[in-house]
From TrEMBL:
PANTHER family linked to this entry: EXONUCLEASE (PTHR42924), POLYMERASE_HISTIDINOL PHOSPHATASE N-TERMINAL DOMAIN-CONTAINING PROTEIN (PTHR42924:SF3)
Origin species: Streptomyces lacrimifluminis
Pfam families reported in the protein's UniProt record: PHP (PF02811)
GO terms for MF: 5'-3' DNA exonuclease activity; 5'-3' RNA exonuclease activity
InterPro entries tied to this protein: PHP_dom (IPR004013), PHP_domain (IPR052018), Pol/His_phosphatase_N (IPR003141), Pol/histidinol_Pase-like (IPR016195)
Transmembrane segments: none
Domain Polymerase/histidinol phosphatase N-terminal, first and last residues per copy: 3-67
Native organism taxonomy: Bacteria, Bacillati, Actinomycetota, Actinomycetes, Kitasatosporales
SUPFAM superfamilies in the cross-refs: PHP domain-like
Gene3D superfamilies: 1.10.150.650, Metal-dependent hydrolases (3.20.20.140)
Protein name in UniProt: Phosphatase
Length: 285
């Protein structure tokens, strides 16, 4: 069983449409794939309609959170997408991404970059707009060679010249909302230090005490030593440890199934969830 529990589509900042994502997941030999777009569930219907036989879809989302000034991401799995409290918070965060991206465009214009909101809006399409879309515009304009090169102190990294913060949920509130919608909560790439500041282990312990189910251990932004430390921390705190690609199509270098989750851990996630069931593929549209 090959299980990849963290993937993005054009419903946020991935480059595969939800239908392409599930087809590519099947072609990559995955048995289970999770759709975890930033702050939205809008990709679900298309992914389910296209889901190939033999592939199971885990519905989810990656919720933007902030603890003591540090941005962090909370993966939520198999919650009820219509539960009103979580829905309202998700929409609030997603909607706030628009004025925030417009603010980053304005800052870039002040820095002399000939970027426009129309360009970023075209790149983002229907997706929750984020820094990777702005970064793609910078690549189109020849300002930086790759999306990754836009995430520096010169441009879009946390606190950089053109960075603008967005509304982000307190993670303890996020846990309450996810649980209230029957979901399972996994702290995404908790030690991805190259993206900026990360939360201390003491905070992970507090989140565990508040109902966090697991932490993402195997992830491209964690060095081998970091993974070993996180595996130990998960065992110590009684947390599940997952692995996943954080696939973004061509916007990131990782490939589907680059890291995977143990079938027993996956089984435990499905047993804990009460908001939704994994969706078995029936052949696709
Ligand atoms: P946002 O949610 O708009 O603040 O943007 C966060 C997104 O930017 C995440 O999906 C990350 O995958 C991406 N990101 C963050 N840091 C980097 C980086 N150093 N290189 C490439 N992408 C990054
Ligand atoms: Zn992303
Ligand atoms: Fe993330
Ligand atoms: Fe992600």
């Amino acid at each position: 069983m090959r299980i990849d529990l963290h993937c993005h589509s054009t419903a946020s900042d991935g480059t595969d449409t939800p239908a392409e994502l599930v087809r590519n997941a099947a072609a990559a030999g995955l048995d289970v794939v999770a759709l975890t777009d930033h702050d939205t569930t809008r990709g679900y219907a298309e992914a389910i309609a296209a889901l190939p036989a033999g592939l199971t879809l885990v519905t989810g989302a990656e919720l933007s959170c902030r603890l003591d000034g540090v941005s962090m991401h909370m993966l939520a799995y198999l919650f009820d997408p219509e539960e009103p409290a979580l829905f309202a918070e998700r929409e609030l965060v997603r909607d706030d991404r628009v004025p925030r991206a417009q603010g980053m465009v304005a800052k870039l214009q002040e820095l002399g970059v000939p970027i426009t909101w129309e360009q970023v809006a075209r790149i983002a399409g229907d997706g929750s707009v984020g820094r990777p879309h702005v970064a793609t515009a910078l690549v189109e304009l020849g300002v930086v060679p790759t999306v990754n090169d836009a995430f520096t102190g010169d441009w879009l990294a946390d606190g950089a010249r053109a960075y603008v913060p967005k509304h982000e949920t307190d993670p303890f509130e996020a846990l309450r909302l996810i649980k209230g919608a029957g979901g399972v909560a996994v702290f995404a790439h908790p030690a991805a230090s190259k993206r900026g500041r990360t939360v201390p282990e003491s905070a992970i312990a507090e989140l565990a005490a508040a109902g966090l189910d697991g932490i993402e251990v195997d992830h491209m932004d964690h060095e081998p030593a970091t993974r070993a430390r996180l595996r130990g921390l998960a065992a110590e705190l009684g947390l599940l440890g997952t692995g996943s690609s954080d696939y973004h199509g061509s916007r990131k270098t990782c490939v589907l199934g680059e890291y995977t989750t143990d079938p027993e851990v996956y089984g435990e996630i499905t047993r804990r969830a009460t908001g939704a069931f994994p969706v078995p593929g029936t052949g696709g549209a």
